[in-house]
Amino acid sequence: MWGGLLSPPAQAAQNPYERGPAPTEASIEAPRGPFATSQTTVSSLSVTGFGGGTIYYPTSTAEGTFGAVAIAPGYTADQSSMSWYGPRLASQGFVVFTIDTLTRFDQPDSRGRQLEAALDYLTQRSSVRSRIDATRLGVMGHSMGGGGSLEASVSRPQLQAAIPLTPWNLDKTWSDVRVPTLIIGAQNDSVAPVSSHSEPFYSTIPASSEKAYLELAGASHFAPNISNTTIAKYSISWLKRFIDNDTRYEQFLCPAPREREISEYRDTCPHA
Fold this sequence. Notes:
With 272 residues, the protein is an alpha/beta fold.
């Protein structure tokens, strides 16, 4: 009994968007999270504005709807280069859409528009739309797809999170970005060197915005195309923190992580 009452004191209402058990270092590094997943293929012939793709999603909605993330590949690549993110992120409690672009040569501004079109399809027409909370959406992308994720963030500031992966874009100034953005660069990137891409992208996003810069030690431009525990654990933490508003994941983002796989980390520090 508490003060003569038959029940404990009322607790603050839980975050309604939390999904899954409390995270640990092991749980965010694991190849799979707590949710069973399935996938469905979306033909390019059935959509407009992008090239189709594959949707990965948790099979149970017992905990409610999920946030969703669209992911674009880089120049000359297709969705297969980003396929490892699908089950890895979906099993942590997201609907994930890895997309093909209209052509393999689309530039970042086009890839940004295609990410938006993919999110619209996902939330309005897809077979899993009832599983998605359309107010909790994010974008990711590699190389020109990463540049596209920045473009989509400017065009659609209501997005909850963006993760450009070794991003490439001729535009170096992103003062209009208000979406919480985690930029992942690669120390030995010779295609989109961090000094002329990831670092200026990060530095020009306003300090008032939620942002972080993670540089993969010794990694090349193509590090995001292969299953990578460091990319996964911090991407999961970022998406959970900002799409799901799940402050349980702040511990992995702030204070700045110190790992041999990370050559540099900058952060405005989120921000309960």
